[in-house]
Specification:
The chain has 520 residues and is mainly alpha-helical. It is built from 24 helices and no strands. The chain is globular. The N terminus and C terminus are likely disordered.
Length: 520
């Protein structure tokens, strides 16, 4: 208990300091999360400018994701050795420098090296932002702190593709990285002004070299496998098979080693806590569904409905409206209610939105696209705040950075897994539906034969008529495939509600987010 108090000896911030501190931390998080998606739509521009293929260009995304995924779970250990404020400041400054290097990159290897550095230093930023915010607010207002954090984390992935596409179309791709420089500079300056005298106690924890090596091997292998699986046709590729085997074997050794090591680099014993395990799995799987659909929906709109990248991005934009408006309200309500009720309502709203999308047709109108996106913002407002509160509930203050880092690591990995699974599942379901739609397309089917005759009467040659029919069948198959994904997503969100109620969040002085108590 004494150690927990030593970790957070400072009183909550007040007045202007609290406002500036919250803005500083939120800006850093927004900049960080934005970079996970802003480069996606700019890959063609980057590849063309650097004279490489599109497949090589996708390593710009993969390199960042691998480095980021490896560094996130190291947050607890790095915090012990450096201090949470110094580590957060170093992350922001190095992120700005690496962003500047990315923009200046004359070749692809230089750009990839800069992206690796950028991803590595970005890792501790998100979990430490939670820790700093919780320590800055009074215990009763901790849910409000989490609501501020949640807004930036949820809106940034939506804003990334829109901003990245606009910058690439109207300026040039280096500016998707340069935009981080003023934002990061302001965040670093404000963070230093407010938090420089509020650092945590530094403890020279010995490094777990074996655990760190195993972590790098299995996370790196898994992340590359997920990012390249679709391009290489998954397990028909020797490369993917080898990467999978390496990831599985290294993970098994990693788990055994970390559970028995005297000073583990990742504290896996946190999974012995019911709230941490239930909250982390519910949050991570839910985020994987959300992020996978966030990638799938614009892709479907562009490839099959005829939307441009900007138009598809704008369809996703309304998701932030209710999220921004309702997140502060969620923060106020949370201390007076059981967070499981709010999380349950959030998951039901997500399920409703995906069920609505599962009823789309190829002639879907703008209103039908926007309505579930708008409603989804209601679910997002109650998604992160109660689940993070449940996950960190009952933990002492000295374990918050490690718990937050591990929880965010699992969430980020699930986001990558969700994206890969959804894109692959869509391809497979499209192929299956296309086979079903065309299996009776022959001259012995009177309906098909009549359709071909009508096309012929309209001036199409027989090959043109067959080509038009195949094109229509392909579009319909893709539509049915994406509808399947939406419907399954709705069902999984409903099933996850049971996992929420496995947890038993602890209350402390009326605070439903017991995580706040841990920060004091």
């Amino acid at each position: 208990m004494a150690q927990a108090q030593a970790q957070a000896p400072h009183p909550p911030l007040e007045g202007a300091q609290l406002v500036i501190g919250t803005i500083a931390v939120s800006l850093a998080v927004f900049m960080n999360v934005l970079d996970t998606s802003i480069a996606n739509v700019s890959i063609p521009s980057i590849s063309g400018d650097l004279g490489v293929s599109a497949d090589q260009g996708t390593w710009v995304i993969t390199s960042f994701a691998v480095a980021n995924a490896i560094s996130v779970p190291l947050t607890g250990w790095l915090t012990d050795r450096i201090g949470q404020v110094r580590l957060f400041m170093a992350s922001i400054i190095l992120f700005v420098i690496s962003s500047w290097m990315c923009g200046l990159a004359p070749t692809l290897p230089f750009l990839l090296a800069s992206r690796v550095l950028q991803g590595a230093v970005a890792g501790p930023m998100i979990p430490l932002s939670q820790t700093l915010l919780l320590a800055s607010y009074p215990r009763a207002k901790a849910p409000m702190a989490l609501s501020m954090w949640a807004m930036t984390t949820l809106i940034a992935p939506v804003a990334g593709p829109i901003l990245g596409g606009w910058i690439s179309d109207n300026i040039s791709w280096p500016w998707i990285f340069y935009v981080n420089i003023p934002v990061g500079a302001i965040a670093a300056l404000a963070t230093w002004m407010i938090f420089r005298n509020r650092d945590s106690v530094v403890r020279k924890a010995p490094i777990d070299g074996v655990g760190l090596g195993l972590l790098i091997v299995w996370v790196g292998s898994l992340q590359v496998m997920l990012d390249k699986g679709k391009d290489l046709d998954w397990f028909s590729s020797t490369t993917i098979v080898v990467l999978t085997l390496v990831a599985v074997i290294a993970l098994a050794f990693f788990i055994v080693w970390e559970l028995t090591a005297e000073h583990p680099v990742v504290d896996l014993s946190l999974f012995s806590k019911r709230n941490f395990t239930g909250g982390t799995i519910a949050l991570s799987v839910g985020y994987g569904l959300y992020f996978g659909n966030l990638v799938l929906l614009p892709l479907w709109l562009q490839t099959d409905i005829g939307y441009t990248a900007t138009e598809a991005g704008l369809v996703m934009a309304p998701v932030g409206l209710f999220a921004v408006l309702l997140s502060p309200i969620t923060g106020k309500v949370l201390p007076r209610t059981d967070p499981r009720y709010i999380a349950t309502l959030s998951f039901l709203v997500f399920a409703l939105c995906f069920w609505m999308r599962s009823r789309y047709t190829t002639g879907v109108d703008t209103y039908s696209l926007l309505l579930p996106t708008l409603i989804q913002g209601i679910g997002m407002a109650g998604f992160f705040i109660p689940l993070v509160s449940i996950t960190l509930s009952g933990l002492p203050g000295n374990r918050i950075p490690a718990a937050s880092g591990l929880s965010n690591f699992v969430r980020i990995m699930c986001g990558g897994i969700g994206t890969s699974i959804f894109q692959t599942a869509w391809d497979h379901r499209t192929i299956m539906h296309h086979a079903h739609l065309t299996e009776h397309a022959n001259a012995y089917n009177p309906v098909f034969d009549q359709s071909i005759r009508q096309m012929g009467a309209a001036g199409f040659s027989q090959p043109q008529a067959y080509g038009l029919f195949n094109s229509m069948a392909t579009q319909q198959a893709a539509q049915l495939g994406v509808n399947d994904i939406f419907f399954v997503s709705a069902g999984i969100f409903v099933a996850l509600i049971a996992l929420i109620w496995v947890t038993k969040p602890e209350k402390a002085g009326g605070d439903a987010g017991a995580a706040a108590a841990a920060a004091h």
